[in-house]
Amino acid sequence: MPLLHLDQLSPEGQQRIETAYKAVVEACAGEIRPRSSVGFDYGVLFIRELVGEQPVHRFAGGIPQASQNAEAFSFETRGGPSAQRAPGASPVTETRVVEAFESLASNTSSEVGKLRQELTETRNELAGEKAQHNKAKDLAKGYKEKVDKLRKMNRETAAELDEVLRQNKVPDQLTDDEVIEMVNQLRSNIRNLTIQCFGEKLKLDGRPNLSNAKLDLQGSISIPISLETVHHCVSNPGLRPVIIQDFIWRWLISHVFSAYCWSPEDTSSAIIHLEKLLSNNLQKGEINQSGDPEREFHTWRANTSKMVHEATETSPNTRERMDFEKICNQLKDDLMKRIKIWLPRKKKVPIEQMVDIIRQSIFLDIHLSKQVAKIQWKLFDDNARRVKKFDGNSMEPAPGQSQLEEGKSFDLVPAPGLIRYGSSSGNEYYIPLLLMKSQVAKISI
C-alpha cells in the first residue's frame, strides 16, 4: 500500500483533509475518549488514532461505494519513516485520496450523529424511567409507612382487646381436651363397674319386684325397647353391663348433671328456677335485645356457679356448708336401690366404686357449670328415640360391641355424646361442636 504524507498534497488537498478531520473530531467531541477503539462501516479503525495523545494520522482502504475500483492508500502527518516518503502525489492520486477521506469522514460524522441522537434518546428514556422509579419508590415508602401505621394500630387494638377479655374472662375455663379427658375417665369407670359387678350369670327366678324392675329399666334407658328385649338383656351376662351402663348415664344426667346437687338445697332450687326462667326468655329473645343474649345468659350462669361453689366451700356456717360425702352417699343409695336387683346373689354391693362414680360425676358437673360455653349431653329423645339410625359422624360402637352399618338401627346407648356450643369468650353459640361421639350398641336376639 503506497504511503502518502500530507505535505505531499497540495494546499487545497491538505485543507480539505484538515476540514474533514476537524468535522470528525467535532462529531466525536465529548463522546470518544483517547485510546478508545471505535469501528465504522468501512472497517477503518482511525478514530482512536486521530485523538491519540501522539497522533499518527493513518488512512487505509475503505473507499466509498462509488470508488470501489480505486487504489487503497495510507497517509500520515508526521512520525513516519522519511525513507518511505514520495516527492509528491499525482493530481489523480491526490483527488482520490482526498475524496475517499472526505467520504469516510462524512459517513463517520453521520454515524456518530445518529449514535449521539440514539444516546440522547436513551438518556431521556433512562431519565424518564428513573423519574418513574423514584416516584414508585416514594409511593412504596408512603405505602410502607401506612402499613407500619396500620400494624401498629392493630397491635394496640389487639392489646386493648386482650386486656378487655382478661378483665371479662370468667376463670376456671377448661379446654376441650380437659373436658374430654374427664368424661372419658368417667365412661371408663362406669364401664368397668358394670362389667365387674353385673357381668356374671344371674338367676332371675324368684326375685321380688322383678316385673317392676324391668319396667323401671325399660322406661329409664335411652331408646324404648320391648320388655322381652329388656328380659333378654338382663338375662345375658354380655348384654347386662351394657344396658346397666345406659341406665346409669341417664340417671346421672337426671340427678347430678345440671342439678346443682353440690350446692345447698335451697340455693340449687333457686338457681334451677332462675335458670329456667332466663332460658325461656332467652328462647323468646327477651333477655338483652341490644347485645348478645346467650353470652349474657351463659356468662351469668358460669359466674353464679363459681360464686355459689366458692361460698359453699368457704362458709363458716355449718348449716350452709354442704356435707359432700353425705350427698354422695344419698345419691349412691338412690341409684343402688334401682339397680342392685341385677346383681348376682353372691356379688357384694359395690358401694365404694359407686360412691367414686357419684363423686367424680359431681366434680365434673361443678366444672361444666362454670363454663361460659354451653356443654350439653347428646341424648336420644323425641324423634331421635324413634328413628334410632346409626350415624357414623356422631356415633360409634361401644367398646366390645360389633361394628354397625350406616343407617342401621341400634338399641342401647352405653355412653352419651357431648356437644359444645359457643366458646370461653362467649361467642358463636349457634355453632355446635361435637366433642365426643355417642357410644351405641345393637341387641341381637
Taken together, the total number of domains comes to 2
**N- to C-terminal distance:** 124 Å
Individual helix count: 12
Structural class: mainly alpha
Major β-sheet profile: 3 strands, antiparallel
How large is the share of residues in beta strands?
A: 5-15%
Provide a quick synopsis of the model.
This protein is mainly α and 445 residues long. It is built from 12 helices and 8 strands.
Please, could you describe this protein's structure?
Helix 1 packs parallel to helix 3 and helix 4 crosses helix 7 (240-255). The protein folds into two domains: 3-137, no CATH class; 174-441, no CATH class. The chain is mainly alpha-helical and 445 residues long. The longest helix is centred in the first third of the chain and has 78 residues, at 91-168. The protein is built from twelve helices and eight strands. Residues 105-167 form a coiled coil. Keywords: Coiled coil.
List keywords for this structure.
445 residues, mainly alpha, 2 domains, 3-stranded mixed sheet, coiled coil
Helices, strands, pairings?
Elements: E1 3-5, H1 11-28, H2 47-50, E2 74-76, H3 91-168, H4 176-198, H5 210-220, H6 227-235, H7 240-255, H8 265-284, H9 293-314, H10 324-339, H11 351-369, E3 374-378, H12 383-387, E4 395-397, E5 412-415, E6 417-421, E7 432-436, E8 438-441
Parallel strand pairs: 1-2, 4-8
Antiparallel strand pairs: 3-6, 5-8, 6-7
Coiled coil: 105-167
Keywords: Coiled coil
